[in-house]
Amino acid sequence: MYRNIRLDTGQERNGTSVKENVAVKVKDVGMRFNLSQERVDNLKEYVIRLVKHDLRFDEFWALREINFEIKKGERLGVLGLNGSGKSTLLKVVSGVLKPTTGTVVTKGKVAPLLELGAGFDKDYTGRENIYLYGAVLGYTREFLDERFDEIVDFSGLGEFIDVPIKNYSSGMKSRLGFSIATVVEPDILILDEVLSVGDKKFRRKSEKKIMDMFDKGVTVLFVSHTLEQVERLCDKAIILEGGHLVAKGPVEKVARIYKNMTE
Amino acid sequence: MKRYIKNFAKYKFLLIELVKKNIKLKYRRSYLGILWTLIEPLLTMMVLTFIFGSFLARGDAQFPVYVLSGRLLYSFFSNSTKAALKSVSGNASMIKKVYVPKYMYVISAVLSNFVTFLISLVVLLGVSIVLRVKPTVYLTGAVVPLIILFVMTLGIGLILATLSVFFRDVEYIWSVLTMLIMYASAIFYPVERVVKGGNGWVFDMNPVYMCIANFRNCVLYGIPMSSQYLLASSAFAVVLLAVGALLFCRQQDKFILYV
Q1: Which of A197, B44, B73, B117 is the most exposed place for a label (fewest CB within 10 A)?
Q2: CB atoms B169 and A95 under 8 Å
Q3: Contact B11 A138 (CB under 8 A)
């Protein structure tokens, strides 16, 4: 299965040593995608191309030789333009994608606030989806039983909790997703510009919740292309360009480089 | 190995939730709900008995039990493999966004069908009582062919799920193959007719039929299982599961690039 990615525990594998105070270690990570002009997804074509030795793909490296560490309690901003590999990096760190090369080690509970409600089933009610999505995120039944009221409370859905999700507005869906995803106290928080969820009132509430986590010393990996947000929230930053890591260091220094790059 | 078990244990609750979801959503918005797992096989049994009973099995009062046992096992096999085939590509949106061990989708597809299958065995019990099939000591052995069939189905499911990610043709090929397996599984005709006609080899190559035959020996005829079928079907099951698990593990990291 996962040969060189290790989630949720600090035990390192195949020789990647991790220091005590490091929460996330990304070492030599590369991610390759195969972009074939016409995707071969039927047998006839596959066999024909196999015979003709024509099964070549255009290789595309979304990430290449990425190296960085995040120490416990540090907040790292990932800057970069569209298509620079930011989202791919987040997916690799959260374990959705397995890197083609290199290793990712994360220590502690990871809460990826990436695609809120990705595990929702539209025919299920809000109540049922809390358990389903909770299970997808790796929570236990007891934990969900215990925190159920808290989740419903925070989402502000009230009586709508027993209505099938397909009748929800998109704002209601992301409110529920956010409430479920943030009910844990994570060690590592992965954010992808989701600080804007729902209406203004909920946005303030959700920002406060994330800030509370920040205050408790959570390790953060935050992706954005708006510099102001990163400067406000992070203490360290890196810049990605065309899949390469071009700068890393304290946020002020990196922000200056990024400004020069974008102007 | 220990790591895999730990990971499985962590997502055990997810497996339960997925199985629950599959079963719940299957019957949502139908008035009779889960009762359909009982009514559907009963009605099919009546139809098949009505059509085939009169000329294929004249005078066999227990023909409905014969039909029902074959049909229940076969539907479990065909429904599960078809659900497993679509389980990975059908959950594409989830696979692309959150990390979950991907085999969970396949196992949950097979397991939820197994649960409804077990519920529908109540019908078999009822019909057997009504038609005065005498229970024997061999009845307890009926679990064995069911376990073999389950393992075999899971193995085939893993293979199909993997292949269908890369080749969408598999779905159509498989639906033809399952039809072939159905006609070769002696669901609604007596085996003797085919054997007499010199085509008995069909059954010796069909592991689904082997499970059905052994199951019938236990619940209908009250005789010991055929050890030849028992061995052959177990071998099929183990090999298929091993191949399926290996194939799935080797390819699963690529799924996300294709689904």
Answers
A1: B44
A2: no
A3: yes
**C-alpha angle A27-A106-B13 in degrees, rounded to nearest 5:** 140
The two three-digit tokens of residue A52, written as one number = 């003709």
Residue of chain B minimizing CA distance to A114: B97
* ipTM of this complex: 0.83
Amino acid letter, B123: V
Of A115, A121, A140, the CB nearest to B13: A140
- Please state the φ and ψ torsions of residue A245, each to the nearest 5 degrees: -85, 115
Of B4, B16, B257, the CB nearest to A1: B4
What is the amino acid identity at position B207?
P
Q: Where does residue B257 rank: exposed (0-12), middle (13-18), buried (19+ CB within 10 A)?
A: middle
Inter-chain touch B16–A135, beta carbons under 8 Å: yes
3-class DSSP state of A125: strand
Q: Domain spanning A5-109+222-262: which superfamily?
A: P-loop containing nucleotide triphosphate hydrolases (3.40.50.300)
Which residues are CB-neighbours of B148 under 8 A, at least 6 positions away? B211, B230, B233, B234, B237
Q: Does B94 touch chain A (CB under 8 A)?
A: yes
Angle, helices B2-10/B12-27, rounded to nearest 10 degrees: 50
Q: Are A245 and A85 in contact (CB under 8 A)?
A: no
Please answer whether residues A224 and A255 qualify as being in contact, where contact means their C-beta atoms are separated by less than 8 angstroms: no
In this complex, do A118 and B28 lie within 8 Å of one another by their Cβ atoms?
A: no
Decide if B168 and A41 are in contact by the 8 Å CB cutoff.
Answer: yes
Going from N- to C-terminal start, the domains of chain A cover 5-109+222-262, 115-184
**Cβ-Cβ contacts under 8 Å, A100 against chain B:** none
Residues in chain A: 263
